[in-house]
Design a protein that fits this description.
Order of helices and strands of chain B: HEHEEHHHEEEEEEHHHEE
Shape of chain B: globular
CATH class of chain B: Alpha Beta
Number of domains of chain B: 1
Strand order of the largest sheet of chain A: 3-2-1-4-5-6-7
Number of strands of chain B: 11
Oligomer: heterodimer
Largest interface: A-B, 31 and 50 residues
Largest sheet of chain A: 7 strands, mixed
Strand content of chain A: 15-25%
Helix content of chain A: 25-40%
Helix content of chain B: 25-40%
Strand order of the largest sheet of chain B: 7-6-9-10-1-11
Distance between the termini of chain A: 58 Å
Chain lengths: 224, 270
């Protein structure tokens, strides 16, 4: 074909990659002290690394980290993963899970508004809730809000229990459709690698495509 | 006088092309975009459908949607145009009914539910100095005339990047936009339909501006034969546009121009 009919690259547009906002809501209460907090830290680090190594997900995934141990803290705010540092986690205090989930929902909503203002497309937000115990505050409002959002397809939630003392029934209140999963031992790293792969799959999905979770992959780190 | 008359004759130009996306190629799936441009019965038309990603037979749905809407807008242009001027919603309902009837037949043939043939739909038909267009779901319709290239119908995605509206949706008619109006009588005036995969490179979602590349393709379509333009579209889809997305990519163009050189088919009334 005649070369004069080849479009110039500079005449094409560059649209921003559609984003997948993800909020990790992590239990850093005193009961997580010792091996659990060390393994959780390593798992979060592996999550960041795996996303950075993924050609598509590194531009699509936007991560925020909220911890609840004594108080609720936003350790990492949404931004490009290239500019983010992996947070260091410290175990202390009680388990204000309800407040942490409400904070995460507010942050996800704010991020969606940022995308809308900037004209950036986005996928359904994800909330990953990990805990080893029972909440020390009232979770009713937060659980009702997440349940409503999930039914309205405004949120995907991944509730993960750690260890044998976790109250799985409490976790289930946040997730009307998908039962919470219990981490096998301290397989945080396996979980976060699975999570990053799931993010990658979603970030490559096209309209009308229902992304199915890698159920077989769950066996490497979790059980119902 | 005789020479002047010949120069005033409008020409029609139409072309189309599609390529499979890298994602579907990787997963061993077929191209789920379908696009056709043609000229028949003094109507020049183009239609494009993008099959839903996770539906098992959406490539058949896209083809059925395109062929059925092309038949309808070619055969019934004038009555549909007149109705659209009075009540666009009735045109949307009428076209949906015809398209769904065809899709139902195809679904029965494949022994699947009709939602397995879900697709978007974009079309434009030109006849006798008028246009009739329709759009449901994502993808973009661009118009280019003496004012330049501009957004004519934007993507309707719903909230999320991987969601959109399909012709098989329960409330599809609420999202089926119908347009009708007059073509410009001087210079060239035409439309480009594109799937969301192609729009990734040809339409700026933030500014809603049309790329120079899209405008260039429409210019080329006026001065190049259909056969060559089909190849130009396919080559550029494959070499440039496909590399910026994992999705299938397709483009169709339908336009008219006042004849100043022998470039296409002349008509008495287009």
């Amino acid at each position: 074909m005649d070369e004069k009919y080849i479009l110039r690259q500079e005449d094409l547009v560059e649209n921003p990659t559609a984003r997948v906002p993800i909020c990790l809501v992590l239990d850093t209460s005193a009961s997580m002290d010792g091996s659990p907090i060390v393994e959780l830290s390593q798992g979060v680090s592996a999550f960041f690394e795996t996303i950075r190594d993924d050609d598509v997900a590194q531009y699509a995934a936007e991560i925020c980290v909220v911890t609840f141990g004594g108080s609720v803290r936003k350790l990492v705010d949404f931004m490009s993963i290239e500019r983010q540092e992996v947070p260091s986690l410290k175990a202390e205090g009680g388990t204000p899970m309800g407040e942490a989930v409400n904070t995460a929902l507010d942050l996800l909503e704010q991020r969606k508004q940022d995308y809308k203002r900037a004209g950036v497309d986005y996928y359904q937000p994800w909330l990953v809730l990990m805990t080893d115990g029972a909440p020390t505050d009232d979770i009713d409002a937060a659980a009702a809000k997440t349940a409503t959002m999930i039914k309205e397809r405004k949120l995907s939630i991944f509730p993960i229990g750690i260890g044998s003392a976790v109250n799985m029934q409490t976790l289930a209140q946040f997730s009307p459709n998908r039962p919470p999963l219990r981490l096998q031992g301290l397989n945080f790293k396996e979980f976060f690698v699975w999570l990053s792969r799931s993010v990658s799959r979603v970030s490559q999905s096209t309209p009308g495509e229902e992304v199915k979770l890698d159920v077989d992959g769950i066996k490497a780190w979790g059980k119902i | 006088m005789g020479q002047d008359l010949i120069l005033q004759l409008p020409l029609v130009h139409f072309c189309a092309g599609r390529v499979i996306g890298r994602g579907h190629e990787r997963d061993g799936l077929p191209c789920q975009d379908f696009v056709v441009a043609r000229h028949e019965g003094n109507v020049v038309s183009v239609a494009l459908a993008d099959g839903a990603g996770s539906k098992s037979h959406s490539e058949f749905g896209a083809k059925a949607a395109v062929t059925s809407v092309m038949r309808l807008i070619t055969h019934d242009f004038s009555s549909l145009y007149d109705l659209a001027q009075a009540d666009a919603k009735r045109v949307a309902d009428h076209i949906l009914e015809a398209v769904l009837k065809k899709i139902e037949t195809v679904a029965q043939h494949h022994k699947v539910a009709i939602d397995q043939l879900a697709s978007t739909l974009l079309f434009v038909a030109l006849h006798n100095g008028k246009y009739l267009a329709g759009h449901i779901g994502d993808g973009v319709i661009v118009r280019k005339n003496q004012e330049g290239a501009f957004l004519f119908s934007e993507p309707d995605n719903g909230e999320y990047s991987n969601s959109t509206y399909f012709i098989t949706d329960q409330h599809a008619s609420l999202h089926f936009r119908i347009y009708s109006g007059q073509m410009q009588t001087s210079g060239s005036d035409g439309f480009m339909v594109m799937s969301d995969g192609a729009a990734e490179s040809l339409f700026n979602r933030q500014t809603k501006l049309v790329s120079k590349a899209a405008s260039q393709l429409m210019d080329w379509s006026v001065n190049t034969s259909r056969k060559q333009m089909d190849q130009v579209i396919r080559t550029n889809l494959m070499q440039s546009i496909r590399t910026k997305t994992t999705d299938d990519c397709s483009i169709g163009i339908a336009c008219i121009s006042v004849a100043n050189q022998s470039a296409a088919i002349s008509l008495d009334k287009v």
